[in-house]
Amino acid sequence: MKKYSVFAIAREAMRGHKGWEEQWPSPEPKKSYDVIIVGAGGHGLATAYYLAKEHGITNVGVIEKGWLGGGNTGRNTTIIRSNYLYDESAGIYDHAVKLWDGLSQDLNYNVMYSARGVMMLAHNVHDIQVLKRHVHANRLNGIDNEWLTPEEAKAYCPPLNISRNARYPVVGAALQRRGGTARHDAVAWGYARGAAARGVDIIQNCEVTGIRRDTSGAVTGVETSKGFIGARKVGVVAAGHSSVIMQMADVRMPLESYPLQALVSEPVKPVFPCVVMSNTVHAYISQSDKGELVIGAGTDQYVSYSQTGGLHILTHTLDAICEMFPMFTRMKMLRSWGGIVDVTPDRSPILAKTPVKGLYVNCGWGTGGFKATPGSGHVFAHTIARDEPHAINAPFTIERFRSGRLIDEAAAAAVAH
Amino acid sequence: MLLIRCPYCEEERPELEFRNAGEAHIARPTDIAAISDDDFEKFFFIRANPKGIIYERWRHVHGCARFFNAVRDTVSDKFVMTYKAGEPKPSKLPGVSK
């Protein structure tokens, strides 16, 4: 892997940019690997990267049905924060935020992590109580989060309407300054390049159609559209399709898959400095470095794999955006799309060993998995390499739905889904 | 937005009138305190989440307010049929080959 640097740019500029090498090759699958990762999204590629970098396991195949980063990694609203309520969640999401800081240098790839701040608005007494509880819980866990008055919120985010005559007046806000955004595609590409440079095979356009097991029940490999590929360890990181893949090994999951939509406006000059979320009116918004307003909508109410959702879900969130930011009422929306998110009953992910020997699963990130990408890959790689969970993901078992030891983060979602 | 046929009102109405109520044909244990943790997990948390034909409950909240069941394809989101609560799970589906 040739290192990217200002000198590389200068060198290539001198010779007509003919020397850039491809960022990752497209190999044919080997007969077998030490570890197979099913799904080349951000979490899967990060897992492969940390398997190679931290655990020296480089004989890894990442198998992807479509193209890498083409699922929810390329469809989310790119928001990063770790202001979750419970200790377990705070642990895993803040592990990710710590890795985000420095990820571009680690990967030698600009993921454009921008800690521009994530501000959550309060509109009523209940919001104040909930958000202040979060502020205190976060600070006890060593996570930055602070309470702002409406005037302080306006100073941090000038487009905010703090008029007392607003339909949903802003009565305060919680601000996590380390929160922000990153370039979602670059995250997938950076991890893919870093993993491939260490010997990982990324096999795109290859669908997993079955999981093969021996007579003891242990995993021996996966059936794919390019034939059988052997491996004693298989990590499933398939987001909305996790239930489908796990069913191939006769593991039934506590998951339901829903469409989640997002949309972007036409690009404009910088007008919006941070990320703003409001649970009460169901709106969240930021501006990408390209200039588009990036707006997240809600999930549809029914199980679906269609990667599309109802128009009324989008218009509902735009109603709220226009109410809070009247200056956006005449913005044109350019594109909208849907991704399929796998939701657990307690709205916390599952990163764990499974009842099947050699089968590991990283799923259930629901509506907010992007922010966790580096931390998720880091601890999942540990789980696969050592065959035991990292202390950070130890609570996120698949057995918690039997034991009752849930991590009930439903109320901590940025916006209600 | 989906168009859903309520089997009680006997007409197609927009999705906004309905509330999805999850997977259908999950029988609640008669003595829930007596079942094992495994059985409780299966009943309460584990879901089929199929890619393809799903049997699901809907409630016509802004209409007759009654629960009913539906068969839908989760890839195309097209309804195969709807039927009244309490009716058996249909074994043959109209227009579905497999």
**Count of helices of chain B?**
1
> What strand line-up does the widest sheet of chain B have?
3-4-5-6
Question: Topology as H/E string of chain B?
Answer: EEEHEEE
Overall geometry of chain B: globular
- CATH architecture designation of chain B: 2-Layer Sandwich
Question: What portion of the residues of chain A fall into strands of 2 or more residues?
Answer: 15-25%
Distance between the termini of chain B: 27 Å
Q: Give the strand content of chain B.
A: 25-35%
Number of helices of chain A: 11
Strand numbers in spatial order across the main sheet of chain A: 5-6-4-14-15-16-13-17
* Largest sheet, strands/sense/barrel of chain B: 4 strands, antiparallel
Number of domains of chain B: 1
> How far do the termini of chain A sit from each other?
42 Å
Low-confidence stretches of chain B: none
Q: Which range best describes the helical content of chain B: under 10%, 10-25%, 25-40%, 40-55%, 55-70% or over 70%?
A: under 10%
Please report the total strand number of chain B as a whole number: 6
The CATH superfamily of chain B appears as Folate-binding superfamily
Main location (chain A): cytoplasm
Catalytic activity (chain A): sarcosine + (6S)-5,6,7,8-tetrahydrofolate + O2 = (6R)-5,10-methylene-5,6,7,8-tetrahydrofolate + glycine + H2O2; sarcosine + O2 + H2O = formaldehyde + glycine + H2O2
EC number (chain A): 1.5.3.24
Protein name (chain A): Sarcosine oxidase subunit beta
